[in-house]
């Protein structure tokens, strides 16, 4: 590595906007903050964008989407009906068409002679490599599809998947898709009790999991932990266990089966089942405003159209030459759409990384980019902020010149992090796509198009063709410039279809505020004079920690399930690192007062109930919580207290002194820190 006089190591990154060696990175970024917009690099020409598309999409959205669905996907039975909007908000797309998602992700590429192409470059924690080709994936997917059938899984049955970042997770999803089973993937970082809840509410028949998972050099026994929580679930007939780490895993005769044994004995041929376009593809549980997670349901044809179209367009994918890497976990929607379905449907080559960004060292991501010659990199703002904290010397150790496009997702990106990403990682030459979307939307809806859209750091910019967002004021009036509630005014193919077994909650959550044909996103946003969207954040009781969605109610109910706790209220506080952080105001039973050990115990308790990501960053002991006279906790005031803001009107409170006492405590704690 060479290093510059200022110690930033920037010349090793090949950046083209460092003027001289003695300009410090910090100063440079501050100067760049004054740049309002970045025009597309003149030599970056979008492969897929045609100006005529935007016009066509605006003129006749269903016809535009029909065209995408026909050209991007292979159909067993072509559709004649494009959009059935006779019963909003229960929209149906391409209803009389039939197709199979796994055939679109695998068979068609193999049939076209691309079977030897690498689908997944897998990188293990200790540097192990696996090159999984399209033929490999197809072979395993067929065997697992037959294996699942042997275990009694049929069309419409739910299969749980609780796996780390290993290629088998893609096989598991695709095998379900092949036979019309509905997968329900649970993020590997969730606690087994959260897995249990998600399996129980979806009546999962089979769970595919792993012996153990590696994390930073240690191995955690997953199967054992799963057994302890899920052993007695009635509907769960079988557990399939992938041998990944070799750690001891209990196998219960008759119920459990090793993945490799199931594959070995299975018939190698499993023709893909032609499925109705509206056949359910997967359920993915996500946090909402109550403690009960929402089972977001996506279906076959519309979802795959959205994932395929957006992945190719937004990432300007050249399936022949790009090496694409999305650093998300497959347990989130980003992993579903942009690690598995979008890239595979487009026949791309992807990197899949098992490990953490700081193991064995903080340069592991950049090492992988250099070694695998990654061209497109997609990550979360929170990860970028962590890298900023670690310093530019880590990316500086590596040649990142293969990169040509960068993306972000999951939370608003602060301009400074955007600029650091642009400069230190992208060498000043890569367009950045700040992609806004949600589990519910299935695919990216608002994002710059590389080579087309001028970017403004911090703005997700403008909607993709065929997507119609708008801002409304509290009373439903359109906002053309300024802030408002973000809504989508026309259906799109990859939208959720309902909440699993809860149509009423679906209507109530998304389509009750402004009518049955207006999708309410749950975010507030600002629209500027150029028509650019700036996402502000959630307006419901959802907290976004490091791009992970958590509900305040879910965390509260985990805290109050601890025997020492009488009452708890959870709010978000802004955090430089994680975007938002969880602050818990907790009242202990019998007026006990808590100490540091109690805080540690509560945090651990939340980790075992939900997962580590839900642990409160801060616990504040409250003798009482601010409540209205009718007993409702005033979260707005707690948020003000947590942020150290001027407190608003407290006259409606039952006991106004409570707030002053808490505010005093928090101010004291802040001063101590
Ligand atoms: C937030 C993740 C700002 C937003 C794909 C949304 C963003 C929620 C962005 C969905 C972005 C996602 N800029 N905020 N580019 N992308 N969000 O369901 O609040 O895990 O409603 O889907 O993340 O989170 P989810």
From TrEMBL:
GO molecular function, one term: ATP binding
AMP-binding enzyme C-terminal domain location: 554-632
Keyword set, alphabetical order: Acetylation, ATP-binding, Ligase, Nucleotide-binding
InterPro entries assigned to the protein according to its UniProt record, in alphabetical order: Ac_CoA_lig, ACAS_N, AMP-bd_C, AMP-bd_C_sf, AMP-dep_synth/lig_dom, ANL_N_sf
KW Acetylation (keyword) present: yes
GO BP, one annotated term: acetyl-CoA biosynthetic process from acetate
Stretches assigned to the Acetyl-coenzyme A synthetase N-terminal domain: 55-105
Keyword Cell cycle (UniProt): no
Enzyme Commission numbers on file: 6.2.1.1
GO cellular component terms listed in the entry, alphabetical order: cytosol
Domain AMP-dependent synthetase/ligase: 109-492
Family: Belongs to the ATP-dependent AMP-binding enzyme family.
UniProt cross-references to PANTHER family, sorted A to Z: ACETYL-COENZYME A SYNTHETASE (PTHR24095), ACETYL-COENZYME A SYNTHETASE 1 (PTHR24095:SF14)
Protein name: Acetate--CoA ligase
């Amino acid at each position: 590595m060479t290093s510059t006089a200022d110690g930033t190591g920037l010349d090793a990154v090949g950046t083209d906007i460092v003027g001289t060696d003695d300009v410090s990175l910090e100063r440079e970024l501050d100067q760049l903050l004054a740049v309002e917009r970045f025009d597309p690099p003149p030599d970056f020409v979008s492969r897929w964008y045609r100006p005529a598309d935007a016009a066509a999409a605006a003129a006749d959205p269903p016809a535009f989407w029909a065209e995408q669905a026909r050209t991007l996907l292979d159909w067993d039975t072509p559709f004649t009906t494009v959009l059935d909007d006779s019963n909003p908000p229960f929209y149906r797309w391409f209803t009389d068409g039939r197709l199979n998602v796994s055939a679109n992700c695998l068979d068609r590429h193999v049939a076209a002679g691309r079977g030897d192409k690498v689908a997944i470059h897998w990188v293990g924690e200790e540097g192990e490599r696996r090159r999984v080709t399209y033929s490999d994936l197809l072979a395993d997917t067929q065997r697992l599809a037959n294996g699942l059938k042997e275990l009694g899984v049929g069309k419409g049955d739910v299969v749980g998947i609780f796996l780390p970042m290993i290629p088998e997770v893609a096989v598991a999803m695709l095998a379900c898709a092949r036979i019309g089973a509905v997968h329900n993937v649970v993020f590997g970082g969730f606690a087994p009790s959260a897995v249990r809840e998600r399996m129980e509410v979806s009546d999962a028949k089979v769970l595919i999991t792993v012996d153990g998972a590696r994390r930073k050099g240690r191995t955690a026994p997953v199967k054992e932990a799963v057994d302890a929580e899920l052993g007695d679930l009635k509907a769960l007939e079988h557990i399939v266990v992938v041998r990944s780490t070799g750690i001891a895993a209990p196998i219960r005769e008759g119920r459990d089966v090793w993945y490799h044994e199931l594959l070995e004995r299975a018939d190698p041929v499993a023709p893909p089942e032609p499925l109705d376009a509206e056949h359910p593809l997967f359920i993915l549980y996500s946090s909402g405003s109550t403690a009960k997670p929402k089972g977001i349901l996506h279906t076959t044809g519309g979802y795959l159209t959205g994932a395929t179209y957006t992945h190719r367009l937004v990432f300007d994918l050249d399936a022949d030459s790009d090496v694409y890497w999305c650093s998300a976990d497959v347990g989130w929607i980003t992993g579903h759409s942009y690690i598995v379905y979008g890239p595979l449907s487009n026949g791309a080559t992807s990197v899949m990384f098992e490990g953490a960004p700081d193991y064995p060292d903080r340069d592991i991501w950049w090492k992988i980019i250099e070694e695998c010659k990654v061209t497109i990199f997609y990550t979360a703002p929170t990860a970028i902020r962590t890298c900023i904290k670690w310093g530019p010397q880590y990316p500086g150790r590596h040649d990142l010149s293969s990169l040509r496009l960068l993306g972000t997702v999951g939370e608003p990106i602060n301009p400074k992090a955007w600029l650091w990403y642009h400069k230190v990682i992208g060498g000043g030459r890569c367009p950045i796509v700040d992609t806004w979307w949600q589990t519910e939307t299935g695919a990216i809806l608002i994002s710059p198009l590389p080579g087309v859209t001028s970017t403004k750091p911090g703005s997700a910019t403008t909607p993709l063709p065929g997507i119609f967002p708008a801002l409304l004021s509290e009373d439903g009036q359109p906002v053309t410039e300024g802030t408002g509630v973000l809504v989508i005014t026309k259906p799109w193919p990859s939208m959720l279809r309902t909440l699993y077994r809860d149509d009423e909650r679906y209507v109530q959550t998304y389509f009750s505020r402004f009518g049955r044909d207006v999708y309410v996103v749950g975010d507030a946003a600002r629209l500027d004079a150029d028509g650019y969207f700036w996402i502000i954040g959630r307006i419901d009781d959802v907290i976004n920690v490091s791009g992970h969605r958590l509900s305040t109610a879910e965390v509260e109910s985990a805290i109050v399930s601890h025997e020492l706790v009488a009452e708890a209220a959870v709010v978000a506080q802004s955090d430089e690192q994680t975007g938002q952080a969880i602050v818990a105001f907790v009242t202990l039973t019998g007026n006990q007062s808590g100490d540091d050990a109690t805080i540690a115990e509560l945090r651990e308790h939340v980790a075992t109930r939900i997962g580590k990501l839900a642990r409160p960053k801060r616990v504040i002991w409250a003798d009482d919580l601010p409540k209205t006279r009718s007993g409702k906790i005033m979260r707005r005031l707690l948020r003000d207290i947590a942020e150290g803001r001027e407190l608003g009107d407290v006259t409606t409170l039952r006991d106004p002194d409570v707030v002053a006492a808490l505010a005093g405590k928090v101010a004291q704690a802040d001063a101590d820190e």
